[in-house]
Amino acid sequence: MQPNWDTILGPLCMPLVDRFTTLLKDIRVTSCAYYKETLLNDIRKAREKYQGDELAKELTRIKFRMDNIEVLTSDIIINLLLSYRDIQDYDAMVKLVETLKMLPTCDLADQHNIKFHYAFALNRRNSTGDREKALQVMLQVLRSCDHPAPDMFCLCGRIYKDIFLDSGCEEDASRDSAIEWYRKGFELQSSLYSGINLAVLLIVSGQQFETSMELRKIGVRLNSLLGRKGSLEKMNNYWDVGQFFTVSMLASDIGKAVQAAERLFKLKPPVWYLRSLVQNLLLIQRFKKPITEHSPRQERLNFWLDIIFEATNEVTNGLRFPVLVIEPTKIYQPAYVSINNEAEERTVSLWHVSPTEMILSASA
Q1: Domain span at 278
Q2: Residue 60 falls within a domain, yes or no?
Q3: How far apart are CA 288 and CA 293, in angstroms?
Q4: pLDDT in tens, 106-121
Q5: Shared domain check, 191 and 113
């Protein structure tokens, strides 16, 4: 009689099969975890190493490696979104999140932090209907979020502020909505970002520091927040210096504004940041009670404002340009260059913000 090998070996073989299955699963989990960590590290390294077009190319290479939904994590997606934000590729941010929405077994696009970046990108991309959609996304997030972050309120404020700016500062309802949202963010957790935008928009609405108790309280809080950053000379982040500059402009502190502008120049901020800074500076210049002081300090501040505004212009058609002349002492001297093409002999004029003037012929 032949032995029934299945009966005899079954109890031995089945555990072996189960063991192999468990081992294979462990290998797969370990492999996925390693791959996720590698992707995350590669994205972080790319952000540190590259900028502009080079970063865009590197991000494209990294995305080609993300062909398995199992390797997608919130950290990886957030870092990709931040990387695209760094190069102002807002369309890529929008398309990344909308691609996630179409994946049947992926719920990452439903996470509040990813929706926040999605709404941010929609607002910045500003195609037809983008800002309305961004606002809809954020309002839905705020309705479903138990403990919303101050940045969420501020993003709603930013969207309404951009709608107000798009209207040529004519749509008061959008301005007032922006004020309310920035106020909510500032009251929830005071920050330089929310406080500066709230103060600027209150000034746009007609308030002034001399008569507004709310503006005075905001000013005191902003000075306190700036004090925590340390001295201007030790600030190495252009965001901090830009905020110092804006607060100084709000306070009409010409001396500190000049120092902050000089510091900002040395830190070489990207043009996209300067454009954002210029928006508030233009609003302050237009709506804040003007300074009547005529002094070398004011001339120096006007020069730095010209430098910042000029840096954000894609096309320059003027005949006079602000420049910085490096003296033999390695000190930057503010100056202007004027080009005269109308004269019989074309000339280039150079004059410092101080009275000295020098004229060179075009052949010199």
Answers
A1: 29-318
A2: yes
A3: 14
A4: 788 899 999 999 999 9
A5: yes
Q: Are 201 and 215 in contact (CB under 8 A)?
A: no
Mean pLDDT of 152-167: 97
Looking at the fold, whether 323 and 313 belong to one and the same domain comes out as no
Using one digit for the tens of pLDDT, what is the confidence trace for 242-254? 999 999 999 999 9
pLDDT of residue 20: 47
**C-beta of residue 193 within 8 angstroms of C-beta of residue 181:** no
Is position 16 within any domain? no
Give the burial string for 309-345 (b: 16+ CB within 10 Å, else e). eeeeeeeeeeeeebeeeeeeeeeeebbbeeeeeeeee
Sole residue written with tokens 């520091």: 209
On whether both 303 and 354 belong to a single domain, the answer is no
10 occurs within a structural domain? no
Quote the strand ranges of the chain, DSSP E. 320-326, 332-340, 347-352, 357-361
- The model's pTM is 0.81
* 235 located within any domain: yes
Put residue 308 in one of left, alpha, beta given phi > 0 → left and psi -120 to 50 → alpha: alpha
CB neighbourhood size of 262 (10 A):
18
Into how many domains does the chain fold? Answer: 2
